[in-house]
Amino acid sequence: MTKETARTLRAFSIELAIYALLVVVYFFLVLHLLGDWLYHLERQHRYIYAGVAILLIIGQAVLLESVTTFLIRMIRGRSE
Questions:
Q1: pLDDT tens track, the chain, 80 positions
Q2: What share of residues in the chain are helix, strand, coil (percent, to 5)?
Q3: Distance of CA 19 to the CA centre of its chain
Q4: 3-class secondary structure, 80
Q5: What is the pLDDT of residue 64?
Q6: Coil, helix or strand at residue 2
Q7: Residues 68, 14: contact at Cβ < 8 Å?
Q8: By the 8 A CB rule, do 34 and 79 touch?
Q9: How far is the C-alpha of 10 from the C-alpha of 26, rounded, in Å?
Q10: In this structure, is the dihedral angle defined by the CA atoms of residues 71, 29, 59 and 17, taken in order, positive or negative?
Q11: Which distant-in-sequence residues (6+ apart) come within 8 Å of 15 by Cβ?
Q12: How far is residue 56's CA from residue 10's CA, in Å, rounded to a whole number?
């Protein structure tokens, strides 16, 4: 394995671990803070619930990707 390949694999592994941790934290945060509200919304207003769920998915993707990118830039900046 070349040095560049090993470095890329290491950076990918770190990014994957950070992203997995952030997804788990996000899941439990939403479950804790919005769980009851989302449950009642789903039972009473399905179309609004669907829209809120889609917005939460999009927000999660954008937020976690930007946080992960920021952290990876910090890690790569320190290692070089």
A1: 788 888 778 878 887 888 888 889 888 988 899 889 989 999 999 999 999 999 989 988 898 888 878 877 877 776 55
A2: 95, 0, 5
A3: 6
A4: coil
A5: 82
A6: coil
A7: no
A8: no
A9: 24
A10: positive
A11: 68, 72
A12: 30
How many whole angstroms separate alpha carbon 69 and alpha carbon 33?
26
Distance from the first to the final alpha carbon of the chain: 19
Please tell me the predicted confidence (pLDDT) of residue 80. Answer: 52
pLDDT computed for residue 5 by the predictor: 83
Quick check: 15 and 65 in contact, CB under 8 A? no
How far apart (Å, rounded) are the C-alpha atoms in residues 72 and 15? 7
Rounded to whole angstroms, how far apart are CA atoms 18 and 76? 14
